[in-house]
Amino acid sequence: MVHFQILKLIYFQIDNMINVLLITFTMSLIYMSIANRMSSYIKILAFQGLLLFGVSFIELNEINTLNLVFVLLETIIVKVFTVPIFLNYIIKRNRMTREVEPYLPNFISLVIVTTIIISTFFLSNTINDHHLNKIYFIVALSTLLTGLYIIITRGKIITHVMGFLVIENGVFILSLAVGNEMPMLVNTGILLDFFVCVLILGIFVNKLGDVFKEPDVDKLSQLRD
Amino acid sequence: MLAYYFIIAAALSGLLFFSREKKLHHILIVLFNVLQWGITVYECVHFRSEELGYFTADAAALLLLIVLSILTTTSSYHSVGYLKHHPSSSRVKAIYYSAFSILVMAQTGVFLSSHIALTWAFVEITTFAATILIFHERTEYAIEAAWKYLFVCSIAITFAFIGILFLSISAQEAGTVDLSYRSLIHHAGLFNPFWLKLAFLFILVGFSAKMGLFPMHTVCIDAHTVAPPPISAFISTTLMNVGFIAIFRMYSVIASTSIAPWANHVLIIAGALSVFVATIYLLRVNHFKRMSAYSSLENMGIVAIGLGVGGIGYYAAFLHIIFHSFTKASVFYQIQQVHRIYKSYMIRDTGGYFKYYTPGAIVILFVFICITAMPPSGMFISEFMIFRAMFSSHYIWLLIPILILLTMAIWALGKNFFRLIFLPPVNFDDSHIEKISPVESLSQYILLGLVIYLGLNPPAVFVSLINEAIINLPH
């Protein structure tokens, strides 16, 4: 009887823990909308990687251990260490300005990102599906839309890549929602992460830095009718 | 055998990457073509067999695989000619050949795979290989198009992955975890329709960047404009077939479920908007490759409409995509010769082609007949079938605007092609024209002849293959 009460308490704490991590993740999105410097973006991306490490550690308890270790290693090594170090290196090497130059003022960005999060909350309430844990869906969808928003309203190529990394974090959260039944999908999502980070960051941004001195997306509009 | 194919293809690609001799490149590319035809013949003989658990050679795969192999051979031949006349360092040439072989290998993987996540992974590999090829000329236009292609295709492939995740959420309702196409088609009736709709929408939007359909067609246009002509010929035909088969397989999964009418509407909207956008831009284009790229967009729109209206439209959609592959490839190969004479791709710099290279001008004439779907071209038969299907499914309110738009497209294409062939050139110094041997246009005659032959007198095995490919769709 006492064991049962303790177990219930533990599961409640675990459930709570996932909620805390995902809500912190959403707060980091709001902070990202008003951040002014490139280094803030990189630190937020690293922090998000750390939170995802925690979530995948707690959530994926039904898949076999080897797979779990692979997922955890990927989250820590790629998201928390490799990508931020790479991004810092690229910014230093190409001597880019350290400021993010958004097209819209920061206050409007803040309002829009908050609206995105609130509307995904209402949207998920209209979907009564007991198979999907609601908080995963909310956080994943708002991360996706925030990533798209960052791509649209920031003018540098490197911030486009950062917006894409935010979208990938969102896809990772969504794949965790089904990760217990289909661990293969989580692996495929990680493969996407890996490929894109290595290829987009490693090869292309370097090549772009060689050709364009100030990588501004406005310069990339020569191909037109 | 398929495992051997992948290993040998990867090895050949690696050897091509590290070799710097022209002769060695030629030998290895010929070997690669032999390998490609070998796997095609093997799959023809072992029709409907399953390999490695995840690859099946069904009818749709076989048809598009044969098209791929034919176009690999012609593109390799024209690549050799292209690299001879456009000097670049041997390292760059090695990268070109190596990326080309990886692209062909990945496309073979997409056609043969029978599991949706494997299709997705191979499509991602084709994106990377195609980006390297688009970047080949290393001009500023090339880097811009290559970056846009890589970035937008990566976002599109992420969307497609989200679609696959939604599909697996909807599959949880039926209690199945197997995402192979056979199991999906079997159980689709039990899936949750809401998630299935979202899955279809995201997969359609994601793979539309590959197929060149409405939501994400813009990167395809830039990419086909900038890539070297043999590569443009390859990626605006077989790579669009890759997008088509991904969308087609998802469509056959949901074709017998309750969301099929909704999905038909979505496909028709995407197709109609593609035709509309293509026609608008065709009227004001002034670059040959860009014109051909918009024409591809328009044809993909027609294929999507054919898939959406159903009935005989299914058969016609397959027919159209096969004929379009051959015709569009001929266009781009001939544009390569045009560039050798005029040293420019702009339409206003050309003219009098009949006088300077008569075999090529005749190819352009035939190409114009084939691509605007005039008889005896096979595309006339497929387009006519699609119009008939639209008429019998009571879509006449859509048919009339589409016919008007296609007429405007015929006018735009005719204006540009006839200017090339018949009108005298402006500001062109014709004292130092390169002599091109007629043998180099032979491949285009063969391809166009295939289009006409398969259209007028299709062999019974061809017809039965297409009928089997669409067997999962409701008739």
Structural class label of chain B = mainly alpha
The geometry of chain B reads as globular
Beta-strand share of residues of chain A: under 5%
Alpha-carbon distance between the two ends of chain A: 75 Å
The radius of gyration over CA of chain A amounts to 19 Å
Number of distinct beta strands of chain B? 2
Helix content, binned percent of chain B: over 70%
Describe this entry's structure for a reader.
The complex is a heterodimer of chains A (225) and B (475). By secondary structure, chain A is an all-alpha fold. Chain A has one domain. Helix content of chain A is 77%, strand content 0%. Chain A has 7 helices and no strands. In chain A, α2 packs parallel to α6 (157-177), α5 runs antiparallel to α6 (157-177) and α6 (157-177) runs antiparallel to α7. The longest helix of chain A is centred in the first third of the chain and has 33 residues, at 2-34. Chain A is globular and about 70 Å long. The mean pLDDT of chain A is 82. By secondary structure, chain B is mostly helical. Chain B has 2 domains: 1-258, no CATH class; 262-475, no CATH class. Chain B is 76% helix and 1% strand. Chain B has 20 helices and 2 strands. Chain B has helices spanning 2-18, 22-45, 59-85, 90-112, 116-134, 140-172, 181-187, 193-211, 218-226, 229-235, 238-254, 260-282, 288-309, 313-342, 353-356, 358-371, 378-392, 396-421, 442-456, 460-469, and strands at 50-51, 55-56. A two-stranded antiparallel sheet of chain B has the order 1-2. Chain B starts with a helix and ends in a 6-residue tail after the last helix. Chain A binds chain B through residues 127, 129, 131-132, 144, 151, 157, 160, 164, 167-168, 171, 174-175, 177-178, 181-182, 184-185, 188-189, 191-192, 195-196, 199-200, 204, 207-208, 211, 220, 222-223, 225, and chain B through 117, 120-121, 124, 128, 140-141, 143-148, 150-151, 154-155, 157-158, 161-162, 164-165, 168-169, 172-173, 177, 179, 192, 194-195, 222, 225-226, 281, 284-286, 290.
